[in-house]
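Give me the fold.
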Amino acid sequence: MDKMFLASGDLVGVTFWLVSIAMVASTVFFLYEGLRVKPQWRLSLLVAGLVTLVAGVHYDYMRDFWVVNQATPIVYRYIDWLITVPLLMIEFFIILRAVGGAVGAASFNKLLFGTLVMLVFGYLGEAGVMSATLGFWIGMVGWAIIIHEIYMGAAAQASGAAGGAVQSAFNAMRWIVLVGWAIYPIGYVMGYFMGGVDDGALNMVYNLADFVNKILFGLIIWNLAVKDSGDTGH
């Protein structure tokens, strides 16, 4: 099959290209920097690199899918999210463990349950298996479970006990989950609830959200790791 190229006016396709390259570059950065920080932070940066690596691979497919079909690559996108979103949730626990903090399995299970509810019903709504409206609102319940746990649950309490830079990073990370993740339902609403399905608006918003939430999430962890490891990062 011949390689497909972007049309000159395909702004959505351009966003797919930008995000796919940004994910690859971020992966190299996180993995390289993971060699320069204290050992207890290396797993955090490895996970950050895995998030952008998985996203970069899927964006390569999503980009080509869009160029050929000019339609939403629903399956590829949700496969990506089913891998990367749980990894982002794991990061909350890894940074707490890096400074001796501890949270129970119940807290992790709540975050995992909320993640699965959010993604599974979001997919069912977008794929047309169930009403897009019903899938949206059930998915929002999953997001609410996550927000509750990281703001008022055991994970939040553990971050307060850790204090200092860890608490600051934890606060920044949960702001991303609260504010940054709000971009996704905005895209869902624009794509499905505003007079028919608008694939262009939906994918541009989703691409922006992935760019911000996955790369910035990793950069917050990197910043904390470098500060804790000293000015030189060694």
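The chain has nine helices and no strands.
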